[in-house]
Amino acid sequence: GVQALRALGLAPTAWHINEGHAAFQVLERLREHVTTGEECAVALEIVAASTVFTTHTPVPAGHDVFSDELMDEYFSALWPEMHLTRDNFLALGREPNEPGFNMTALAIHGSRQHNGVSKIHGTVAADMARDFWPEIPAAENPITHVTNGVHVDTFLARELSQLFSSLHRDWRWNLRNQPYWDFVDAIPNDRFWSVRAAIKAELIQDIRRRLSVQLAEDGLSDIRIERTLRYLNRPESDLLLVGFARRFATYKRANLLFRDRERLAKLLADEDRPIIFVFAGKAHPADEPGKALIRDIWQMSNEPAFHGRVLLLEGYDMALARKLVTGCDVWLNNPEYPLEASGTSGQKAGLNGALNLSVADGWWGEGYQREGRVSNGWSIKPYNRSFNHEYCDSEEAGDLLTLLETEVKPMFFERDPHGLPNRWIQNSKMAIRTILPQFNSARMVCDYITHHYLLAARYGRKLREHDRALAKTLEDFKHRVRAAWPGVGGQLINDTPAQIHGGEVLHLNIEVSLNGLNPNEIAVECLFGHLEAHGDWVTSQRFSSTISAPAIAPNSPPATQIYGFALTVSLAGLQNFR
User: Fold this and answer.
1) Which of 96, 261, 290, 547 is 20 to 30 A from residue 401's alpha carbon, by CA?
2) What is the pLDDT of the chain when averaged over all its residues?
3) CB of 203 within 8 A of CB of 328?
4) 515 sits in which H/E element
5) Are 446 and 176 in contact (CB under 8 A)?
6) Cα torsion at 439, 190, 322, 371 (round to 10°)?
7) What does the alpha-carbon distance between residue 42 and residue 424 come to, in Å, rounded to a whole number?
8) Which residues contact 545 (CB under 8 A, 6 or more apart)?
9) Does residue 73 have a pLDDT over 50?
10) CA distance 339 to 59
11) Contact 352, 325 (CB under 8 A)
12) pLDDT at residue 81 above 50?
């Protein structure tokens, strides 16, 4: 990829990689610098400074690890070009205390901007990478987050696009302007509902067409096909359509709905208020458990209690996905917390007015909003994964069915004298005005530009300037710190009071052995906080020190420095500091 860009005459100033094969571009760019006479360690500072790494999954199987022997086969000619030994080359892809060449490790070593793809995932990714920065808590390492967003014009239904244009022709120029979208609430309920109904009718027609062909190819008679499709003959407004369409991976728990079949069957037995669940998706060809999930759903759809109420569509592609996210009333998502990095299908459904019914993971941890009795969907609180997984699945499945029984179904079928589900419409409008401006790709790209791309371009440029002088200085500084750090340490040299009142000043003096480093090359912090039950430290206040006079105590070791704190304590109760 790097060579292709060079051949095209393109010279990116910021590079964006993930934990897949794209991370190999770090090696090619290192090779380019080394062949111009640069040391590999200096080249790594330049390359990493201009590289952004986005990790996309907390699932271990999504992080490639190659054996040393496989790396030998394909890269043995490369490390001599980089003036590296085999061990030093393989170290670029080493995860601490783990064998193999890890692509995530290569991406972390070869970048200085790192992020997950939702707020929850950023925290999870930081914890997964804690061994790369073992001296600090995971919450303080440099992995942040940029939440994913979707391309509005691709996934917004044509009818809604036309409705928005008839009201505000400039809506496409206000995709990141949250208050602007309050206009959705002012759309008359009957007009809004008729547009949603038209979109849904188009989806139902498409489902009927697809299933008619699919079931005929399976050898079913016309009578059996019509019996399977009988509920789709109802007026679209009298049918609650719940969609689940995505990649069938085990952690997405497509079959969670069926853990209590008797309870689900009772929910679906209501002939006057019919609910249809539509499933679609594909599993990776090598994912046998994922393919088994699809077989399970298919078998469920043929059971008498679920026949015609649970539909499985084949041939899942982008066209079908777009139909489903625009036309379903409810979008179902059951990931095993915290394994959903972001997810975007719920964003696509939400910006079309569908209500998400989802475990609070991935983007939905940020997306779910409630204003009094109005919300943009329903959030299922995940159970602590320290419990038995079977227990968590069972409880979350129960919570899912409870919401369907007590809130989703009653609200949808609650109608005014004119046949309008006004409470549902309010929630649907809220879904659009909260999800569309917050979870679109324009906002996402602007976040990357502001928080990552501009920094990567700026830092990369600075390290290349003046014959890479700053890069050489930085590498030399890191080399000195790594060599000296085992001998650097500090101790508290003044007594502290047993108690202190709010507003009073606490003085701390820390004597630090510098081991050859300059005083201004070391920063000392004092953290106020507490230890949680499981032993993790939680910081509530952070203070930076000032450099005091050099240590002059008679028995002080050489090359020490005193760092002082004058802390005004504002928190009450028992506090710890470190």
Assistant:
1) 290
2) 94
3) yes
4) none
5) yes
6) 30
7) 60
8) 510, 523, 524, 525, 526, 563, 564, 565
9) yes
10) 6
11) yes
12) yes
Confidence of residue 549 (pLDDT cuts 50, 70, 90): low
Phi/psi of residue 440, each to 5°?
-110, 160
CB 239 within 8 A of CB 326: no
Of the candidates 377, 382, 376, the one whose C-alpha atom is nearest the C-alpha of residue 362 is: 382
Q: Which residues contact 359 (CB under 8 A, 6 or more apart)?
A: 333, 334, 335, 336, 337, 340, 379, 380, 382, 396
Residue 190 has pLDDT above 50, yes or no: yes
- Exposed, middle or buried, 244 (CB in 10 Å: 0-12/13-18/19+)? buried
Q: pLDDT for 353-392, tens place per residue? A: 999 999 999 999 999 999 999 999 999 999 988 888 899 9
**Single pTM value for the model:** 0.93
Q: Give the number of residues written for the chain.
A: 578
CB atoms closer than 10 angstroms to residue 226: 15
- 2-148+446-481: what fold? Rossmann fold (3.40.50)
The token pair at 568 is 């005004």
Question: Taking phi first (over 0 means left), then psi (-120 to 50 degrees means alpha), and beta for anything else, what does residue 515 get?
Answer: left
Q: What is the DSSP letter of 383?
A: P
pLDDT digits (tens, 9 = 90+) for 130-161: 999 998 889 899 999 999 999 999 999 999 99
CA 41-47-52 angle, to 5 degrees, is 135
Within 8 A by CB and 6+ apart from 471, the residues are 42, 45, 46, 49, 463, 464
DSSP secondary structure letter of residue 364: H
The pLDDT value recorded for residue 69 is 98
| pLDDT single digits (tens) 172-188 | 999 999 999 999 999 99
Q: Are 571 and 504 in contact (CB under 8 A)?
A: no
Cα 306 to Cα 311, 390, 409: the distances in Å are: 9, 24, 17
Return the pLDDT at 553.
47
What's at 340, amino acid-wise?
E
Q: Other C-beta atoms within 10 Å of 556: how many?
A: 14
Q: Between vectors from CA 22 to CA 19 and to CA 28, what angle results, nearest 5°?
A: 120
Say what the pLDDT of residue 498 is. 81
What value does the mean pLDDT take over residues 308-328? Answer: 97
Q: Which amino acid, one-letter code, is at 138?
A: A
Name the pLDDT band for 558 (thresholds 50, 70, 90): low
Q: Is 33 helix (H, G, I), strand (E, B) or coil?
A: helix
- The answer to whether the CB of 351 falls within 8 A of the CB of 155 is yes
**Cα distance between residue 109 and residue 536, in whole Å:** 26
Phi, psi for 531 (deg, rounded to 5): -95, 130
Q: What tokens does 470 get?
A: 């700053």
- Alpha-carbon gap, residue 503 to 250, rounded angstroms: 54
Buried b (16+ CB within 10 A) or exposed e, 276-301: bbbbbbbbeeebeebeebbeebeebb
Supply the CATH classification number for the domain 152-439.
3.40.50.2000
The beta-carbon contacts of 322-325 under 8 Å, at least 24 apart in sequence, are 322/154, 322/155, 322/348, 323/202, 323/203, 323/206, 324/203, 324/243, 324/245, 324/278, 324/280, 324/349, 325/155, 325/243, 325/245, 325/349, 325/352, 325/354
